[in-house]
Amino acid sequence: MDEDEEARLAALHSYRVLDRPRAPVLDDLTRLAAGMFDTPMAAVSLIDRDRQWFAGSVGLADEQTSLDVSFCTHVVGARKTLIVPDATRDARFAGYPNVTGAPNIRFYAGAPIIDEQGHALGAMCVIDDAPRGTSDRQIDHLVTFAGQAATHLSAIRNRLWVADLGDELARSAQREDDLVANITHELRTPVATIQGYLELLGDQEDLAPYRRLIEPIHRNGRRLVDMVDHILAGTRPPGAPLPAPVGTLDLGTVVAAAVTTCRPLIALRPGPVTVEAAEPLPVQADLARLAHAIEQVLRNALLFTPADRPVTVRVTARPFPVVEIIDAGIGIPADELPLIFDRFHRGRHARAQAVPGVGLGLTIARNIVEAHQGTLTVTSAPGGTTVRITLPGAD
Fold this sequence. Notes:
Elements: H1 3-14, H2 24-37, E1 41-47, E2 51-58, E3 64-66, H3 72-78, E4 82-84, H4 97-100, E5 107-114, E6 120-128, H5 136-164, H6 168-202, H7 211-234, E7 247-250, H8 251-261, H9 263-267, E8 273-276, E9 282-285, H10 287-303, E10 311-317, E11 321-327, H11 348-352, H12 361-371, E12 375-381, E13 384-390
Parallel strand pairs: 8-10
Antiparallel strand pairs: 1-2, 1-6, 2-3, 4-5, 5-6, 7-9, 10-11, 11-13, 12-13
């Protein structure tokens, strides 16, 4: 093994994420990537000496696999993006067991995760069980996700280094992350595995008569995982710090990710949902968390606006980066405005219309925005509500 590979492996092990519970931020990143690409599977795959370890994943039952079936090792070797439209037609991969059998990989797209020292640690990848193509814009998004994975790994390593030096605050934050990671592993991972098997069952022709039973199980499993994530995000201890922004991103990419996540709700509406984005607008941000904040606000706008009325998402720079979510809905009663950021607060409109939720959306959104050194403000009238998220620009 050459010196470069030994140096790469030494760098990889310095991050201390192998054989540990998956970091929630990396799981969040993979879920967001899968949503943007509309794929059932995604992973942050780290290439070790004789295995690939999934430091973050969604839709994959295994924690690791051998390099003999790894697409991502090709990304690390070439240090560039790899797109495989149909693995069954690619001589390099057609005979892989994960192509000929479960999870029946067809489409693969991976971008290298390269750290600050230039080491290729692994790949950020999205995977589908059906052949497909990609656009240049999607590839740009995937490269952005890979960059975020690299900066998250650096943040995890730095936190552990600080904890080793005895910083109690860092130890507390790490203990909290470990607790969330263990909850994730013990609850979300088994449910995700069950959902994966349900998808396989749904593809079996001889089980077609039972699909009406399988689909509700799959849907409610997803709701269970989302609810746990939502409650964990909204009930952090008051003194627990949120991770700081980890990289420079185009704010338009963050908004696109949030809108993609809300696509099922948007599809139910005859009224227009318009996205007005300016030229690329760089911000220092954690992609998954900031997109989650915008998603929470947009979801509220969609749920509380009659289906035939418009909802607008506007990105501007005046003079700081701003995201505005403007709806023509029923508005928030004036006496409830001071309460909207209280945890578990549900207004009378939510109760009267049986709008789903537990009253944590705006709490989560504001906490995330403030962790980005930004502000979230809400103005409302009977004719609609405007939520404005203002962020500092990237240096």
